[in-house]
Amino acid sequence: LALLLGLPLALAAEPPSCAPLVPVTFDNATIPGLLGQWIYIAGASKYPPHLEELKAVKHAAFSFSPGSHEDELNVTEIMRLNETCVVKNTSKILVFWHNSTLAHVDDQGASTAKLMQSDKDLLILKHLNTNFPGLSLSARMPNVSKELLEDFKAHLHCLGFTEEEIFFTS
Fold first, then answer.
1. Is the pTM of this model over 0.90?
2. Residues 157 and 150: beta-carbon distance below 8 Å
3. Pair type for strands 167-168 and 134-139
């Protein structure tokens, strides 16, 4: 009986299973599904320039609109970095169909990411920087379920991030 009563506690203490996130393979519905408004919720990165920005972002919203051709999206970003509001509408997302990769290009350079999950309300990106893991979570609405946040944090823990390295917007 003691064994049965202790089982739920033992199961609760078990570390999260580290099932890998599987990248989305782009098809004709993928990119149109990204269009519109998104709210940045949380992120983590070991890449020093991204880490500094993550620490400074207090709120961020962005939108994707069709670019000048099918391999390009226009991006408008509105962010509060510490106490400064920033609006950027000069960046692009380049779509690489052959390897299902996205590249964010602006006046400060380019960064690439794999789309790990996307549905009509959720966007998870795995940022690709050599030897520097990174993951971000955005959604159509500013609030996401506790379960979704816990799943996201579990994936980050599997990538080696601690709670202190995960940054949420306010």
1. no
2. no
3. unpaired
